[in-house]
Amino acid sequence: SKKCLYIDDPAGVQLYGGWGWAVLFGAFISIGFSYAFPKALAIFFKEIQDFFGTSYSEVAWVSSIMLAATYGGGPISSILVNRFGSRPVVIFGGLLCGIGMVSASFCTSIMQLYICVGLMSGFGLALNLQPSVIIIGKYFLKRRPIANGLAMAGSPVMLCTLAPLNQFLFDNFGWRGSFLILGAILLNCCVAGALFRPIGHATGPIQKEANKEVKETAKAYLDCSLFKHRGFLIYLVGNVLMFLGFFAPIVFLAPYAKHMGIDEYSAAFLLSILAIVDMIARPTTGLIANSKWVRPKIQYFFSFSIAFNGACHLLCPLASDYAGLVIYSVFFGLAFGMVCAMLFETLMDLVGAVRFTSAVGLVTIAECCTILLGPPVGGALIDTFGDYKYMFIKCGAVMVLAGTFLFIMNYYNYRMLAKEEKAVGTKDPEHGKPMNEGSNNWDSEKMQDGQELEPLTDEQGLKKEVNGLTEV
């Protein structure tokens, strides 16, 4: 019979199957909306710009604020999850998303859209994203890479669906009616959150430990000692620079196609093409990055992916017709998927699993600045020169620069790590590896499910023993 692991819980929560797959489905929905929704809104930008009489730069702030709120709200979301659990946080986030979009349908100025769509819905998406990632780690252990891959596939699937759907809604209901309907659709995040069944109970000393962990989690996001970490600083500078040109091409791809005289549905389909290729590129990149040839020097592969992304944008102005834009969308989707697949894996490779949570929190906060500025700066270039090509050239140049910087600095970092390892030597087991390097010597076949269960036996992530853990 099939082996299942249960926790002493009235609900009889089954890991690696059963309700775990329902949780994975909920995470698929939440993560998909969180990543895809801000990009799919670009379908409405040209019409909103004409309606309010605003510039490209002003309308681009809608997506920028939404993306910044989604990324910047990550640390707050993690703290709330540790305090209240994933289910209530995701449900509240879904309500906030829906209220924000419904309110946006009644907005009479672009500033009101910044607040309703950007801040309210953006923060609501942040409350969906982080809990979904966290709860997958609680339900899946040995199969966690597969579960994460399936959940992350929600992003391209949702983008592929939302792009033509948004165009259909606009043609039939206008942008106001579309926002009203999209607000109702986003309420499905509440349904996804309801699937996140808590694991185990927290009472007595364990509950006190939970409150203590909330405080420790808040402090973890302010672990400034990471700024003395060489590998972390290299990653931080390179990624902050990269995000200045990472999202603007997606935001302006459909408007650019419409500017070239391409019909609305064909323009929206470009985002679907990008999403389909992205969906294939992510797991493929993960397999390549996990190979014995690439993984020891995964930072070089990540640097190449960023530079390749930038090269695609530099060549985009050469596309003079729809066929050219389709080719660009294919290569853009490939490059985008490559970067996204390695974004967090490379950070863990540098700082290790112990300091990963703190590193993600600090990186996310720093990246918000360039995520916020990227699309508006691109829009300002379009307003100034009256041509989209300068926006693509700016984004491409910035990303090629970021990729080159990371490649050179990671070469320096690998050299320094080799010298440090040589200095420490292999005869002194007390010293271990240098603090600038995560562990690359791993074997997934040796992973023991039972040993990993202990930190994950409670929805609040308590690292204490829970009585009654049995194997059936």
Short description:
InterPro entries: MCT, MFS, MFS_dom, MFS_trans_sf, Proton-linked_MCT. This protein has 472 residues and is mainly α. It is built from 18 helices and 3 strands.
Q: Can you put this structure into words, describing what you see?
A:
With 472 residues, the chain is mainly α. It folds into two domains: 1-220, MFS general substrate transporter like domains (Growth Hormone, Chain: A, Up-down Bundle), CATH 1.20.1250; 224-438, Up-down Bundle (Growth Hormone, Chain: A), CATH 1.20.1250. Helices cover 72% and strands 1% of the residues. The protein is built from 18 helices and three strands. It has helices at 19-40, 45-52, 56-72, 74-84, 86-104, 110-139, 144-152, 154-186, 188-194, 205-220, 230-242, 248-259, 264-289, 298-315, 322-351, 356-385, 389-424, 449-453, and strands at residues 5-6, 14-15, 470-471. Strands 2-1-3 form a three-stranded antiparallel sheet, with no helix packed on it. Helix 1 (19-40) runs parallel beside helix 7, helix 1 (19-40) runs antiparallel to helix 9 and helix 3 runs antiparallel to helix 16 (356-385). It is globular and about 70 Å long. The termini are close together. The model is unreliable at 1-14 and 427-472 (pLDDT under 50). This is Monocarboxylate transporter 2-like. Its main location: membrane.
Strand content: under 5%
CATH superfamily of the largest domain, by name, is: MFS general substrate transporter like domains
State the CATH architecture of the largest domain: Up-down Bundle
**Which CATH C-level class of the largest domain is it?**
Mainly Alpha
Low-confidence residue ranges: 1-14, 427-472
Please tally the β strands and state the result.
3
